[in-house]
Design goal:
The complex is a heterodimer of chains A (293) and B (266). By secondary structure, chain A is mainly α. Helices cover 75% and strands 0% of the residues of chain A. The two termini of chain A are 24 Å apart. Classes of the chains: A mainly alpha (293), B mainly alpha (266).
């Protein structure tokens, strides 16, 4: 995002603030529908009706709520790890292809990416339910189990759905990192006698490491605040922060507590974003100062 | 040598195949099921029919949801694209201090969890007595989509030869004429892409729809959510298949347009 919108910064053409009025409508919307409402949440979370931190204390001192916070982090962490482990080789294969083969492979990653999340969730329920495709295959075709496995509306279902949601962006980010690696360095290593395998692990992988770190943080943040998949595939036993925030506002009507929880989720996201920008900057300066100088 | 660059190893290829299979599996299952006859959603179906599509067409709730979603998506595409175009041009031309901060602010709705913005807007619109209204949904979806438009249009502006604007000005065009007759026509394809993306995102958006829609503004995603939550019928599979075809066509259109523009402006 940062790179996509970087300043051209060459020709100083106009007076410095001459086109600022063009930004006005966007800032009205951002102030009225984004910053303002979040400020209202923040104030609701600490005023009840006097200044108090009781809702934050409640979140971090009640085992059930600590469990919810930890659950969200754990689901995001496990899904991110699986996405990186499977997404790295996939992105590697993708980044190596040219022409039609690449377009076809990219299409197969983009199709789920652009598919409505509810279509994907519904499809997973159909596949994973007790008389779904996977259980029938394992029971009737292979005969290795007698009773259907419980694959959905629990932790397993939440992870499967989350990995499916996060995998396309993971592959796309890693693919762009890998394509920016200078292939001549790998070739140079091989011409100096390294086996392809050694060149891959000693040259290619380290060069993609900054990109992997940034992708990991970004994917983790995406997973941490996601609502739809855990809510529909995880079931009530696997409450996450986003699910509890939704419940507090629409079912339990405890808006103060819900506001505090939303602020905690927002704060965790901000910490992650800060880490992301630090990593990006480090990756950028290393690329400039090190190899391409 | 070239072969060793192209070749990505057996292990990588095996993992990649499994990953792609994992990504496509649910979609490959849901389409046949939508053409099945059994309400148990067994796979593969024993018999094929158009039963679920018939039920879908006969149910007026889906039709009215489709109309709501279309109306919402088109309104959002329009509002979001106008806003994104103005913002992208404004940011592109701005050379003063704090440019990076302004850009970060514009893009920030993309990184805050949607559920947080969702409950914040739910709160705001309850105070204003606007929950359930079309305006609330348009406002929420415009907020979520216009930053993408800014990114897409900004990419076109980065490729755009600003000397064309200078030429127009030096030939006597005023700033507005230059914008209207030179800048906008050149970046038009990216504006169309931004509009298609805004429409798609709004058309598919779930969280805002859950929190902000009311009885008269039920969108397709809201209707699907209720369907998945309460009665898991294969009609949802039929809806899914229709949506799959619809979004694929729109994405393919936007992608083709994006490619063409990248070829043209260079």
């Amino acid at each position: 995002m940062e790179a996509a919108i970087s300043a051209r910064g060459t020709v100083p053409r106009r007076s410095r603030g001459g086109s600022l009025w063009l930004l006005l409508p966007a800032f009205v919307l951002l102030a009225g529908a984004f910053i303002g409402p979040i400020a209202i949440l923040l104030s609701r979370s600490v005023l009840d009706p006097n200044l108090t931190l009781q809702h934050y204390v409640e979140i971090f001192s009640t085992p059930a709520y600590v469990r919810v916070v930890w659950n969200s982090i754990e689901i995001a962490l496990v899904s991110t790890t699986i996405c990186l482990a499977a997404g790295y080789p996939t992105a590697y294969v993708l980044s190596r292809q040219r022409g039609t083969a690449r377009a076809a492979l990219l299409g197969m990653v983009l199709l789920p990416f652009w598919t409505n999340i509810l279509v994907r969730v519904y499809a997973w329920i159909v596949v994973l339910q007790s008389h779904g495709a996977i259980n029938l295959f394992l029971m009737d075709t292979l005969g290795i189990i007698d009773h259907p496995l419980k694959l959905v509306f629990n932790y397993t279902g939440a992870i499967i759905g989350m990995v499916h949601y996060l995998m396309p962006p993971t592959v796309l980010i890693l693919d762009s990192t890998m394509r920016s690696v200078d292939q001549r360095l790998v070739l140079a290593a091989q011409s100096l006698g390294a086996t392809p395998r050694r060149a891959f692990f000693r040259i290619f992988v380290p060069l993609t490491l900054p990109g992997i770190r940034a992708a990991a943080v970004l994917i983790f943040i995406m997973g941490l605040g996601f609502f739809v998949t855990p809510a529909l595939l995880g079931g009530r036993q696997q409450l996450t922060m986003s699910m509890l925030v939704n419940q507090d506002f629409t079912e339990i009507m405890d808006w103060s507590f819900g506001s505090a929880l939303a602020v905690v989720l927002l704060a965790l996201t901000m910490v992650g974003l800060y880490a992301y920008y630090r990593l990006q900057r480090k990756a950028g300066s290393r690329a400039k100062g090190g190899l391409h100088a | 040598m070239l072969d060793s660059i192209r070749d990505s190893g057996v292990f990588s290829k095996a993992i990649a195949s499994l990953t792609i299979a994992f990504l496509l599996l649910p979609l490959m299952v849901v389409i046949p099921i939508s053409f099945g006859t059994s309400s148990l959603m067994t796979f593969p179906p024993h018999e094929y029919s158009l039963r679920w599509y018939r039920e879908l067409v006969d149910d007026s709730r889906w039709l009215s949801a489709a109309l709501t979603s279309l109306q919402l998506g088109i309104t959002v595409a329009f509002a979001s694209t106008v806003l994104a175009t103005m913002t992208a041009i404004g940011l592109f031309r701005y050379r003063g201090p704090g440019k990076a901060a302004l850009q970060a602010l514009v893009l920030s709705p993309l990184v805050v969890p949607v559920i947080v913005i969702g409950v914040a807007l739910f709160y705001l619109f309850s105070l204003l007595g606007m929950t359930g209204s079309m305006n609330a949904l348009v406002c929420a979806h415009t907020l979520l989509t216009f930053p993408y438009g800014v990114v897409v249009i900004n990419a076109a502006l980065e490729r755009f030869d600003t000397r064309l604007e200078q030429a127009a000005m030096s030939l006597g065009a005023n700033p507005f004429g230059t914008l209207w007759r030179v800048t906008l026509p050149i970046i038009r394809p990216s504006i169309v892409v931004a509009a298609v993306f805004a429409f798609l995102i709004s058309f598919d958006e779930v969280v805002m729809a859950l929190l902000l829609s009311g009885p008269t503004t039920l969108t397709i995603p809201k209707q699907m959510w209720d369907g998945i939550r309460f009665d898991l019928t294969p009609v949802i599979a039929a809806v899914s298949t229709v949506l799959l075809v619809f979004s694929s066509a729109l994405v393919a259109f936007a992608e083709a347009l994006r490619r063409r523009t990248q070829g043209n402006t260079r």
